[in-house]
Design brief:
The chain has 433 residues and is α/β, with parallel strands linked by helices. It is 45% helix and 14% strand. The C terminus is likely disordered.
Length: 433
């Protein structure tokens, strides 16, 4: 099975290169540092190296408390942060600057992973959430590098796909030195696939600190939106959702003070969504253009990076996208942490535990479709007491679920003890924490 997997990867390489070049038309960063995709990451000098893999934007933000902890616990170690997407890499640069070394995670080919471990020689690897790469783990085992899957989640849908290759999955999952799952349900699904040394430590996204300048940036956004406007933020929207929203909201004849601020999940779609808004509604003021949104504009486009929490903080009502259509939803914890009333759609399987608890705690409201979304947003706009109540519940929900970092740090301490002073390539610890 492993040989078949690798053979299929080799066949996919030309298509992967073509896809990178195609995507680089909109995000030129896909063309940068191409040799890193083949394992030629920056060569790090001898010494302890903590490697953290955060595939994209959400995982990189979730890794923020982990990086802060690592800087305190391993002050002499270099931190290597790998990504798969430009948005993740840019977020890492914005969050950590020169405190970390950044690179692309190589394609999961044996020779690429061999180069990766030879050049980076990590002492310990922490892979965020759901990234499982067989040849990466095989190379790590050969070099004696313990790799842990942390903040791990596995939805029922994903688990069902893994079951089809249960033997292969069991072999691959067993190569992790340990797995720190977000919830009991995640842990059970991972163990059913052969994962060993599984602990439940919670969701690191609850431990992400609010930016110190959050209120100042939210104030700037309110000023940009215009005095007296009631802002509805449609955050992290995905393909197809913007069309549903813009067309339905245009037909709904909203009160003139309402400004709908759409913030697409992926920056390469900013121009596409701006064109959609202009075609349907006439005006599409963009955050990047500055100035003030005209009073006649019904919609605006949030096309800046690193401001998602500021957008939510500037809103009267926040909708978290990726949930109107079956994408699985985006991170509702960010919106809840700003103390705003939060709306989510039906499709939240990527964040099922957090979504269900938020609903149970009254920290979020679920809407079945765009019509219900409009009705719920209008009702909240007209009821400031209800908005305040939902916002307080959202703050309590995020505050009371913190602590994942402390639990994860305690669980990882034996691994840190084992690598302190351990030369690259020397034997890995015999047991997981």
């Amino acid at each position: 099975m492993s040989a078949l997997y690798t053979a299929l990867l080799w066949l996919a390489v030309p298509f992967a290169i073509a896809r990178l070049l195609w995507r680089s038309r909109r995000q030129v960063a896909y063309r940068h540092h191409l040799r890193e995709r083949l394992g030629f990451v920056p060569a790090l000098p001898p010494g302890p190296v903590l490697w953290i893999h955060a595939v994209s934007l959400g995982e990189t933000r979730a890794a923020e408390p982990l990086v802060r902890w690592a800087r305190q616990r391993l002050p002499s170690a270099r931190i290597l942060l790998t990504h798969t997407t430009p948005t993740g890499r840019q977020a890492g640069r914005d969050l950590f600057g020169s405190d970390v070394v950044q690179a692309w995670l190589p394609w999961d080919l044996p020779f690429a992973m061999k180069h990766f471990f030879k050049r980076a020689h990590p002492s310990l690897g922490l892979v965020m959430e759901t990234e499982v790469w067989p040849n990466l783990l095989a190379a790590a085992n050969r070099t004696g590098t313990p790799v842990f899957l942390v903040n791990a989640r596995l939805s029922e849908r994903s688990a069902a796909r893994y079951v089809r290759g249960r033997g292969f999955a069991r072999d691959v999952m067993g190569r992790f030195a340990g797995i720190a799952a977000q919830t009991d349900a995640d842990a059970r699904r991972l163990e059913a696939l052969g994962a060993k040394s599984v602990a439940v430590t919670g969701n690191l996204k609850f431990d992400v600190a609010l930016p110190e300048d959050l209120q100042a940036r939210a104030g700037q956004l309110r000023a940009w939106a215009g005095a007296g406007r009631c802002v509805w933020v449609m955050g992290s929207t995905r393909e197809g959702e913007e069309a549903l929203l813009v067309e339905a909201l245009t037909r709904a004849a909203l009160p003139p003070e309402v400004l709908v601020l759409i913030v697409p999940r992926h920056p390469q779609r900013f121009d596409e969504v701006a064109a959609l808004i202009e075609r349907v509604a006439g005006l599409a003021p963009r955050r990047s253009a500055g100035g003030i949104v005209p009073a006649t504009a019904r919609f605006a486009l949030g096309d800046s990076m690193g401001e998602m929490m500021a957008y939510y903080s500037a809103a009267e009502v926040a909708f978290v996208g990726g949930s109107l259509l079956p994408f699985g939803g985006q991170n509702l914890i960010e919106a809840c942490a700003t103390g705003r009333p939060v709306l989510i759609g039906r499709h939240t399987f990527n964040f099922s535990a957090a979504a269900e608890e938020a609903l149970r705690r009254g920290a979020a409201l679920r809407v079945d479709d765009v019509t219900e979304l409009i009705h719920a947003a209008l009702a909240l706009t007209r009821d400031p007491i209800r908005r305040a109540s939902l916002g307080e519940a959202a703050l309590a929900f995020t505050r009371e679920n913190r602590g994942a970092l402390d639990r994860l740090a305690s669980w990882l301490e034996p691994a840190l003890d084992a690598i302190r002073g351990r030369a690259p390539g020397s034997p890995a610890p015999d047991r997981a924490p």
